[in-house]
Amino acid sequence: MNKSTSTSSWRSGAVWGNLLVLLLLSLLAVALFKLQSGDWWIATPRRENWLGAALSLLAYVAFCAIIFWRSRPRPTVDDSSGTGDQAPVLVAYASQTGFAQQVAERTAASLRLSGLPVRLRALSQVDQELLAKTERVLLIASTTGEGDPPDLALSFVREVMRAPANLGHLKYAVLALGDREYEAFCGFGHQLDNWLRQHGAKPLFDLVEVDNADESALRHWQHHLGQIGGVTDLPDWAPTRYENWTLVTRTHINPGSVGGAAFHVSLQPTAGTMPHWLAGDIAEIGPRQSPQAVQALLDGLALDPDSTIRINDEALPLAEAISRSHLPTHEELSGQTPQAIADLLNPLPHREYSIASLPADGNLQLLLRRMLRPDGTPGIGSGWLCDYAALGGDIALRLRSNSNFHPPANGQPLILIGNGTGIAGLRAHLKARAASGQKRNWLLFGERNAERDFFFGDEISEWQSQEYLERVDLAFSRDQPQRLYVQDKLCAAEELLREWMEAGAAIYVCGSLAGMAPGVDAVLREILGDTQVEELMASGRYRRDVY
């Protein structure tokens, strides 16, 4: 539905609503007139009581009609034109109770902070004409009952999803809201995802499931929004409750690499009790500014770093509050009191990293690459873990369950595909497989140079010798004149891939969303066909943790 059509429809509804209210008020006026004139009743006590009750009821109904009409949910029509020729990102929601609409509005606001033009619509206002002129769409979809769409999305299901469509030009993402107590968890979100894929649309990233407004899943959605807008410092929608961990070791594991520096770090909980997590889970890190930058700001303002301030009812030193936040300029803070400064601070967003270890290892391990800004300075998250945090110092960390990338429920064969620091998540799975004695594992891994970038190469070789890795295919792109990538290795093993899939194998992909993941997906579809790939995704035999 285009803007003019939706506005006309809303106005038409408003007219009928106003007529209804006027009709009720007119009936009330007529009744009162008749009551005074005495034309149609005789003032007996019983009739007087009945008439009084009827008039009271009529007045109440009219009052309720007015309140209902004024407070009813209205379609959202919200556009921002942006700059230049950039097409707006369509943010569409299917809401039953209003929560999906709230998330959609926050999504639109985050994208605007990134400088992107946005078009916000209820799904009932989206038609094929709008989809045809849209390049990117983000869908926030609630599910009602056992996998049903919200009431206001039924028109989209009936008029758009059941009609022929060519969506090959469209890139999309789905945030599915649901409740795991229901068998068809996030059913309508998955229905939208399957429909878009089947009609040629390409996912910006994999569907994100949210169980009962789970904050960690919503933060994962925010993480992807930052990637879409190319802005990684968007504020979190809600404060993250971190636990204190200690940075135990930090090792630069690829010195001399032509790629970015990669670091292997290990952490332990400060409280001493190792929490539980599964292979595939995520560590959310609360980054900090460098101590040198914080001290320089405080020195320039002649402020005591130990001044006590309060943020969200938490008392802490001013220096720590600034370290958790985007650094304001000297001019913004000049002449302000410590508490006034604290009130102006905007907290840093969290950073996500695949966990490369299991609790049985006695520590939590990460593999991350130092990311550099255009001016050559380290990024917020990687700069904190790779450069600024002191060994033995505190790290704010929270575990996030990533159920979509948990190990297979049975002992089926497992194909693990990844590149770069994506080996971290695959390493945790290989550790879990070895610990449970499951040996039908096939690893395909790609990086730049075997000499510098074969991350965890000794462990991989040991797993091979112990027969926990049945096959290993390595693609080091810079070790030969022609670039060689992990998807090329997969393509060359077509017959073996078919054999493993016939044996019930699952495919897990971890690593770069740009290049590797779509390349692997294209090879799978070329070899197995779109239908089988869609079936693998629906059954959980094809899972991805890509970023």
Q: Which terms would index this structure?
A:
19 helices; six-stranded antiparallel β-sheet; single chain; globular; disordered N terminus; seven-stranded mixed β-sheet; 547 residues; 20 strands; alpha/beta
Polypeptide structure, described:
With 547 residues, the protein is an alpha/beta fold. It is 40% helix and 21% strand. The chain has helices spanning 3-37, 45-71, 99-113, 128-132, 154-161, 187-198, 215-229, 291-301, 318-323, 330-333, 338-344, 380-388, 423-435, 450-453, 457-465, 486-492, 494-502, 516-528, 530-539, and strands at 77-79, 89-94, 118-122, 136-142, 171-178, 202-203, 208-211, 243-252, 262-269, 282-286, 308-311, 314-317, 351-354, 364-369, 394-400, 414-419, 441-447, 471-476, 506-511, 542-546. The strands form four sheets. Strands 1, 2, 3, 4, 5, 6 and 7 form a seven-stranded mixed β-sheet that branches. It has a six-stranded antiparallel β-sheet with strand order 13-10-15-8-9-14. A five-stranded parallel β-sheet has the order 18-17-16-19-20, sandwiched between helices. β4 (136-142), α5 and β5 form a beta-alpha-beta unit.
